[in-house]
Design a protein that fits this description.
Number of strands: 9
Number of helices: 11
Distance between the termini: 36 Å
Length: 280
């Protein structure tokens, strides 16, 4: 077997082509294999949905965490933060995600579930399982956004955290209503959480913005609290009305595995946070 050239002798273009060819032919490669092939100091980080590779001079542990998202056969994926298919723009984002996942060789045969704010209507639109989201569960008969936020803040949020605490600490499952249990089971059974693409991680007001932002963050953060890997798909992030709101989002994103951003402004903002996770 010919000797492997040193990483210093390989140009970035050659490394990128080598990484792309290896991934295309062989699929995800283990951390140790990349270390032998490219050297310890260079890491190709790839987007498993769009099958693109970016080289990062980071620890190979980052690469390993990306490759170990979900099992290679028939993964179970939960898409969170879906709004409503009545909005054609949001419907287009979800349909685009489903198409991307279906084209990716590693996600073919995946079992996909969507947690939607308008789940009863969306069941007739998407050809996958649709369950209520936390926003949908917080809805009241009056459809008042203020009451929905109050219900989430005073009921759903504390009870779901209490349920999680009892489950992890005492192995005790507190009683849940049928709709809440349907959502919780979707989280528990998933191998990967993907937050739907869009522009919902921003604020327009200083006071109400905290609750709305927390509701949007909790959609995928609950999955992280359950130990599930999280990927943010095609996001627009910011602007924020206060530094505390920006800090909330920054802290929440520290726990995700990868973030895909839609425009340069969002990329520059998130990059300035130094999260040390792959950004696209």
């Amino acid at each position: 077997m010919p000797a492997r050239p040193s990483s210093q002798a390989l140009s970035e273009r050659r490394l990128h082509r080598l990484a792309t060819q290896t991934y295309t032919k062989c699929g995800p490669v283990s951390e140790s294999a990349w270390s032998r092939l490219l050297g310890e100091s260079i890491t190709p980080v790839l987007n498993p949905v769009q099958r693109t590779v970016t080289l990062k001079c980071e620890s190979s542990r980052v690469l390993h965490s990306v490759f170990s998202w979900c099992p290679m056969s028939n993964p179970r994926i939960l898409i969170t933060n879906a709004y409503s298919a009545r909005n054609k723009g949001d419907a287009g984002i979800i349909l685009g995600m489903l198409s991307d996942l279906g084209r990716n060789v590693h996600f073919r045969g995946a079992s996909i579930t969507i947690a939607s704010s308008d789940w009863e209507y969306d069941q007739s639109v998407y050809e996958v399982t649709v369950v209520p989201s936390f926003q949908s569960l917080a809805e009241t008969r009056s459809k008042s956004p203020h009451l929905r936020q109050l219900r989430f803040l005073c009921l759903l949020l504390p009870y779901s955290l209490l349920w999680l605490f009892c489950r992890r600490t005492f192995r005790l499952n507190l009683p849940l209503s049928a709709r809440v249990n349907r959502l919780i089971q979707a989280y528990l059974q998933s191998d990967l959480i993907i937050a739907a693409g869009g522009g919902y991680l921003y604020t327009r007001t200083s006071f109400r913005g905290y609750v709305v932002l927390l509701m949007n963050l909790y959609g995928f953060l609950f999955g992280r609290l359950l130990g599930k890997p999280v990927y943010l798909y095609s996001q627009s992030i910011g602007p924020f009305q206060s530094r505390l709101q920006e800090w909330m989002v920054k802290q929440a994103l520290k726990s995700v595995r990868l973030i895909e951003l839609r425009e340069d402004e969002s990329f520059r903002l998130v990059e300035s946070w130094n999260l040390r996770i792959p950004l696209f």
